[in-house]
Amino acid sequence: MGITLAILGATLAVILSGIGSAIGIMIAAKSAAGALSEDPTKFGQYLPLIALPGTQGIYGFIIGFLIFNKLGIISGNIIDGLTFFRGLQFLVGSLPIAFAGLFTAIYQGKVCASGINLVSKQPTETGKALTMGGLVEFYAILGLLLSLFFVLFIKI
């Protein structure tokens, strides 16, 4: 039962943060597609704003990978007899990035879409648009760090 809970935690970290990233990128990309229809030369300025919400999916993948590595799944030496309590620790440890990744990526996509609208009208303001998107990223990083602390300090 413990191994099942731990795998569930890894899965939630990857899937929820990945869903958030996909939605966030979609929101920003839709805005960029509209802006590009007016001026296709600005694609390079929009690309970082489109890609920024994708980082949360990477963070979730890192936590999922760490959990799988600690469980021995990657090396093929799966831990036998992981207790229910240890499995629950992995599950709970994955939740900060799972939910932070889900929600911050979506909201970051909205902020980046607004940034794309800004840059389409004021091309010199790309730095400000990226900074605003980066402020949302801070909370995704906090979720990543909290999950890292939980997962790395679980004794097996």
How would you describe this structure to a colleague?
The chain has 156 residues and is mainly α. The chain has one domain: lithium bound rotor ring of v- atpase (Four Helix Bundle (Hemerythrin (Met), subunit A), Up-down Bundle). Helix content is 82%, strand content 0%. The protein is built from 5 helices and no strands. The protein has helices spanning 2-38, 43-51, 55-71, 84-121, 126-152. α3 packs antiparallel against α4. The radius of gyration is 18 Å and the shape is elongated.
CATH architecture: Up-down Bundle
Mean pLDDT: 96
**Spans where pLDDT lies below 50 across 5 or more residues:** none
Query: How many domains in all?
Result: 1
In the CATH hierarchy, what is the class? Mainly Alpha
Global Rg? 18 Å
Write down how many β-strands occur, each being a DSSP E stretch of 2 or more residues: 0
Tell me the major beta sheet: none
Helical content, roughly?
A: over 70%
**CATH topology (fold) name:** Four Helix Bundle (Hemerythrin (Met), subunit A)
Order of helical and strand elements: HHHHH
Structural class: mainly alpha
Helical stretch tally: 5
In one word, what is the shape?
Answer: elongated
End-to-end gap: 15 Å
Strand content: under 5%
Q: CATH superfamily, please? A: lithium bound rotor ring of v- atpase
List keywords for this structure.
5 helices; mainly alpha; Four Helix Bundle (Hemerythrin (Met), subunit A); single chain
